[in-house]
Amino acid sequence: MTAKPFKIPESVLVVIHTSALEVLLIERADRPGFWQSVTGSRDALDEPLFETAMREVEEETGIAVGSAAVPRSALRDWRLRNVYEIYPVWRHRYAPGVTHNTEHVFGLCVPTGTPVTLSPREHLQHVWLPWREAADRCFSPSNAEALLHLPKLSGVAD
Known about the structure:
- With 158 residues, the chain is of the alpha+beta class.
- It has a single domain, classed as Nucleoside Triphosphate Pyrophosphohydrolase (Alpha-Beta Complex).
- It is built from 4 helices and 7 strands; from the N terminus they run ββββαβββααα.
- A 4-stranded mixed β-sheet has the order 4-1-6-5, with helices on both faces. The protein has a 3-stranded antiparallel β-sheet with strand order 3-2-7.
- α2 packs antiparallel against α3.
- It is globular.
- The termini are far apart.
- The mean pLDDT is 94.
C-alpha cells in the first residue's frame, strides 16, 4: 500500500450562487455542523487554479462547469487571496511543518434550480440561502468574508 501524498497548501474556494444571489452551502461529513462553499486543494503543483476549481465543483456537487447548463464563462476568478493558518485537526494532511494555506477565491453563477449531487464521503447535505444568511452560517471566516463580497464581485446586476 502506498502512502497518500501530502496535500498541497494552495487551494480554491468556489462560491456557487444564482443571479438572485442565493448561495449553495454544503455541510462537511467529517465535521457535522460545519457549513461551507466548495473548497479543495490543487492535485499537482502545476494544476491551473481554474482547473482545480472546476474539478472540485464537480467532485463535491456534481455540477459540471463547461456543460450547456453551466458554461466555463460562469466561473470567475475573483482575484481574492486568503492566507490562513490550517486548523490543527487537519494539519496531518500536509507535509510536516506546513501550517498555512493560500486560498484563491472564485465565483460560479449557476441557473436557479441547478441540481446538486453531493459526494457522500465529503458532505452530508446542502442548502441554498440568501448571501447574507449564508455568510452567517459559514464556519470559515475567509468563506464568510468571500460571501460578503458576492454582490460586488458576482458580475450580477443588483
